[in-house]
Amino acid sequence: MIYIEEGFPVNMNKDIKFQLGIEDIPKKWYNIAADSPVPIPPPHNPATNEPASPKDLEAIFPRNLIEQEVSVERYIDIPEEVREAYVMLNRPSPLVRAVRLEKMLKTPAKIYYKREDLSPCGSHKSNTAVPQAYYNMIAGTEHLTTETGAGQWGMSLSQACSMFNMSCKVFMTCSSYDSKPYRRIAMETYGAKVYSSPSNETKYGRAIKEKYPDTPGSLGIAISEAIEMAVQERNTKYSLGSVLNHVMLHQTVIGQELIKQLEMADIVPDHMIACVGGGSNFSGFSFPMLAKKIKGEVDTDIIAAEPVSVASLTKGDYRYDFGDTAGMTPLLKMYTLGHDFIPSAIHAGGLRYHGMAPTVSLMKDLGYVRPVMVEQKATFAAGMQFANSEGIIPAPESTHAIAAAIDLAMEAKRKNEEKVIVFNLSGHGLLDMAAYESYLSGKIA
Ligand SMILES: *Cc1c(COP(=O)(O)O)cnc(C)c1O
Q1: Are 373 and 296 within 8 A, CB to CB?
Q2: Nearest-angstrom CA–CA distance, 87 and 21
Q3: Which residues lie with the beta carbon below 6 Å from any ligand 1 atom?
Q4: Residue 231 phi/psi, 5° resolution?
Q5: pLDDT digits (tens, 9 = 90+) for 96-148
Q6: Phi, psi for residue 375 in degrees, rounded to 5
Q7: Residue 282: helix, strand or coil by DSSP?
Q8: Which residues does residue 285 pair with via DSSP β-bridges, in sequence order?
Q9: Domain 2-27+79-123+246-440 has CATH 3.90.1720.10
Q10: Which of 205, 230, 251, 406 is the most buried (most CB within 10 A)?
């Protein structure tokens, strides 16, 4: 037994870190569509407002990924090439008990976090970047286009494309392009071409620039540009880092590993928390447990932490809307702030999206998911506490989950309850130092 402080007995061999072996990397992805009590609403064709046919999607996605998008099979095999690449991404990722954070908060709650910051690109995004690049490669795609906010997605896809010998073109929202040069340089290091969005490369980009010369850009605008380019250029497909069903599917390696790790730790979480932008790290982390909740096997409170300024689940309407700003995508049934909503330039660039994944939206609508909103300043305060206890500087996106976890740990303290809180650390913040500088110098109100 080591005593980090009196009253905090921890067995270092048993209680601190739950690490699986390579053989525990899941062999299948888990598909929530199989267990949802009502079908996931399909995408609609905007011209007819009828369900889109898979053919409508073929202009931008390869057929193998479209099959996953519409699948209702509970499990989908992970190709061996992708499992092998997951080893390189440091899977399985550890589950860690936040002993030092508990001590700092003096809470009786037990706090655990799943470390998705350990992949070479520093976030969960590679869990889907790698399979998307792989499936495109075997379908004969030569070039992928995409959008990126803070740059994590663009970086992960650039890395995955370099792995499978494809070129990558990334539209990066101009607010991030200017404030996060190192992610852009990382993408270029992996051989990608990066454009500040809105750009002069596309018709839509040029139109937006003319109409709103001072726009900070948005993910919705960047998606429109990437799709326009994918439709127009030869052997070019588009890749999306969140929102779509197949992206949520790929991320479920997180939650399947987590279920095994919770068994090792012999705990059932009272609360599970992840931040939500488009919903992918949240889905991957929580859907395998949510399946148990649907079946009535657990009663875990599953929380989606979102920014006050882009609170699609809390403040949005549940309706069909476009996934992008220009209205080029099929309509998706989701909680949305409106496809022309331009979020304020918060530092958590990965959360600046007007909508929410149709799967996450449905689970919220059915009452299985509880959204909470967090103020930007509180998220950085939580990030500072985490950095100074656990030693990891979290991504500004991830600090939303940390802030919600700390709130619950403090509530447990007030009520003297030994709650079990598990959150997803979706990424590290080592390339987000400008954001921390703003906080440290008092510029975040
Ligand atoms: C992109 C990103 C998010 C938000 O995207 P989701 O699809 O909601 O997961 C959250 N955290 C990090 C570190 C990210 O890179």
Answers
A1: no
A2: 10
A3: 123, 125, 152-153, 242, 275-282, 350-351, 395, 397-398, 426-427
A4: -70, -35
A5: 999 999 999 999 999 999 999 999 999 999 999 999 999 999 999 999 999 99
A6: -75, 145
A7: helix
A8: none
A9: no
A10: 251
